[in-house]
Amino acid sequence: MKRLFGDTCMTLSQQNNTVESSAGSVRERLLDSAERLFAERGFDSTSVRDLAATAGCNLASVNYYFGGKENLYVEVWRRHLLLLKDARISSIEKVLFDSAGKPTLEDLLRSFAYAFIGPLVDETGGPRLIKLMAREILNPHLPSSMFNEAVIRPTLSAVQSALAKVCPELPESKVPLVVFSLIGQLVHTIKLKTMLGSMDDDEALAEFEPTKVIEHIVAFSAAGIRAYAGGETQ
Prior knowledge:
Elements: H1 2-41, H2 48-55, H3 61-66, H4 69-98, H5 105-121, H6 126-138, H7 146-166, H8 175-198, H9 202-207, H10 210-229
């Protein structure tokens, strides 16, 4: 009887694991399919039927797992925003740890720049994420505070804190401006790569080397920050 009871419990446990695994699989398939369709067609041109068919699940699954297309769109973005935030903050924490809290200004800027650009220029998922971003900018469907709360605010806080440690001579009032300048350069670098890729100009695209661009941004920004810190500019 004990053995039978034990076997029964194991069978029920296996069944529960199978159900949970299946549920996770359907949810992930919906997220992956939604990301592709929203990037290719946009939110308004993607129907719930399209989402379910592409994910290989029944029509009710979208409502069951996400409560509708709108929430599914938010969850697609939440997944990306968490990864972007974690990558950027981890890059700062790592360079501080590796240098015992005393990295050079160039090391800090370089580590952050690579973490910022990396996911967006990665050939496997970068182009799709950029398309998704472009569509959201032109036709917003996310809560207005989502980007700020999920990525911008925690990232700015981490960069500003690290910058104050690395360059204590930099006036506190100028730290946010320096960070905005750095991020602006990185954003336009991503935009430039996207533009070159859409032009089907292999020669122009070949001349665009992210490593060289990042090193230029690092050198340019470090020089500007030191000038600010030294009081050479107003």
